[in-house]
Amino acid sequence: MPDRVDTARSFSRPRLLFIDDDAAVGRVVSRMLRGTFDVTVSTSAREAFGKIAAGEPYDAIVCDLIMPDMTGMDFHERLLEADPARADRVVFVTGGTFTPRAEDFLRHIKNPRLEKPFDRGALLAALALVL
After folding, report:
1. Residue 61: which of 13, 116, 19, 119 has the closest Cα?
2. Does 7 fall in a domain?
3. Residue 8 has pLDDT above 60, yes or no
4. Bridge-partner residues for 93, per DSSP?
5. Comparing C-alpha atoms, which of 106, 17, 37 is closest to residue 66?
């Protein structure tokens, strides 16, 4: 008997978790990627990490580097401890403001990064690097 194909998974779009404390940026990215990705937007890295810890599957994660509640650097550190393979699938977004810690962090990680503002093509190219 042939293997049963899971058609729901076969035809589903990749799942993207987008984390940025600016809800407007999340809305823009959701519209930008509509039809290409299933996008979940979170305005809190702490909340986003909770979703991951609860087992929600994401194929890629885009995370703002500087946020008030938990930085993208702290998020990545926790993710690296919990799921190193998933930590490799994070794309970082920066608004151009760098602390010495952020500069050092970006110098030492291999993850792709985007400068705001970015367009759909740049975002898709960065996501292709982690998928």
Report:
1. 19
2. no
3. no
4. 64, 114
5. 106
